[in-house]
Amino acid sequence: MAAMLKIGFASPALEKTGTLVLFVGSDLELSAATRKLIGTAGVGTIKRAISAEKFKGKERSTLLIPAPQGFDVDRVVVVGLGKDEEQEKADYVRLGGVIASVLGSASTASILLEGPAKWRADAEAAVDIALGLRLRHYRFDKYKAKKRDAGDGEKADQPISVTIHVEDPVAAKRLVRSREAVGSGVEIARDLVNEPPNVLDPIEFAKRAKELEKLGVDITILDEKQLAKIGMRALLGVGQGSEKESRVVIMRWNGAKAKKGTKAQPVAFIGKGVVFDTGGISIKPAQGMEDMKGDMAGAACVVGLMHALAARKAKVNAIGAIGLVENMPDGNAQRPGDIVTSLSGQTIEIINTDAEGRLVLGDVLWYVKETYKPSFMIDLATLTGAIMIALGQEYAGLFSNNDTLAERLHAAGQATGEGVWRMPLGAAYDKMIDSKFADMKNTGGRFGGSITAAQFLKRFVGDTPWAHLDIAGTAMSSPETDINKSWASGWGVRLLDRLVADYYEERD
Ligand code: BES
Ligand code: MN
Ligand code: ZN
């Protein structure tokens, strides 16, 4: 639900516009090209303001100069880029977020993308800044009958038009389409997570996923009758106490060229889509239960990612699979003590009906493995509160049976700022979910709760390279950042898009 933000690209020039954005490193020198454009009077004004405000040019610091002398603009904003080393490692998406934060009530802005020598100011930098502007600008206000000021000085529904002046605007215009694809993917994920649970039930969620058909994604929606026939009884058990029917949605994007009749093996992403998690009969305390509308953030990320891949026509074959259920207590609800037979044939003793995500994912993982024989599977789930005890809300927990996949996820995390931290797996943890009555039980006790949950999933992936991301701490209600002011972060879309782009796409 982005408020109106228009971003364009043009050659370096001085515009008569609302806000002009310029850059300096900690040496506080304007680049020669910028000095030439703004002239001696302009340079003098900026120097005076820098010394009057004792501005140090620290990374991501900003200096606001209203009604600047010698300029035909309302305000100049000087953005600090820090020291040489910081300039070399600059996070341009984040920088875009910082810039968005100082545009305030401006309706037009122009960013002069020139800076110190160590700072890359090319087309790629321009489109990354554009992505950051957009992500920071995102608001979810569709249910506010009275739209009001966003509170942080950023007017929510005022249209704003930004021009980024860059050496090669043609290259930027070519590149920006893929960043727009990713930006929309993040927004789709945020929208889904922010939606209230009375609106977004499994059927409505499936309908939203089906919209990807417009981009050429193949969509299959499996209803309860089909799921029962296939044998996904672990997943169906979670939904059986809800008035809302469960669904599984399979999304297929075939972007790789078929080579001589053989199709490239797909990569696969699997998402937990518990549209609301009351805990079921093992009901949760009332305090904060409203947050459990976000227990479908894994599934939301998969939909956002599939959008991004399709919209930028990624040269990869990718499967997205999401299990959509509502976990409710009623007369037909699953009980602690029940034993269910999963699609894999393995039996599960239910100890706690609130450990429901693993039951959903177990069946979907097995189904994807058997049906599509993917080269890897990555699942995303708001799976455990325990992951926040272990890692806080900075990193998502990463569990994997494959070092290469884990290392690549780690690298993609460093590149995007969506960080993952690897956690252990092992036989001693696996033993903790053995059951007296069935092949396994769905909880492993108080200790190592995120690890025993991951061990449970591992029993459904066979030899397929697999990674599990526990995103309970990062996907929702996480601390605000320079690029996110919304309750839902859309975490994982940029990470996984980057993973695919860097390691799994065909090269021309
Ligand atoms: N959806 C919750 C995990 C969760 C908690 C996500 C808080 C986001 C914020 C999950 O289904 C759950 O209830 N897990 C239990 C597992 C326990 C019963 C073994 C938990 O974490 O307490
Ligand atoms: Mn639960
Ligand atoms: Zn849950």
Short description:
The protein is 35% helix and 19% strand.
The percentage of residues in β strands lies in 15-25%
| Alpha carbon gap, first and last residue | 35 Å
Q: Which second-level CATH architecture of the largest domain applies?
A: 3-Layer(aba) Sandwich
Structural class: alpha/beta
> Assembly type of the shown chains?
single chain
- The helix count comes to 15
The pLDDT mean sits at 96
| Unreliable segments of 5+ consecutive residues | none
Strand order of the largest sheet: 7-8-10-9-13-17-14-15
**Helical proportion?**
25-40%
Walk me through this protein's architecture:
There is one protein chain. The chain is of the alpha/beta class. It folds into two domains: 5-170, 3-Layer(aba) Sandwich (Leucine Aminopeptidase, subunit E, domain 1), CATH 3.40.220; 181-503, Zn peptidases (Aminopeptidase, 3-Layer(aba) Sandwich). The chain is 35% helix and 19% strand. It has 15 helices and 17 strands. It has an eight-stranded mixed beta sheet, sandwiched between helices. It has a six-stranded mixed beta sheet with strand order 1-6-5-2-4-3, sandwiched between helices. The chain has a three-stranded mixed beta sheet with strand order 11-12-16, with helices on one face. Helix 9 links the parallel strand 9 (267-277) and strand 10 (317-327). Helix 3 (92-102) crosses helix 4 (123-137), helix 5 (169-194) runs antiparallel to helix 9 (297-311) and helix 10 packs parallel to helix 14 (449-458). The radius of gyration is 25 Å and the shape is elongated. The model has no long low-confidence stretch (mean pLDDT 96). The structure holds ligand BES, manganese (II) ion and zinc ion. Zinc ion (ZN) is lined by residues 274, 277, 295, 356-357. Manganese (II) ion binds next to loops.
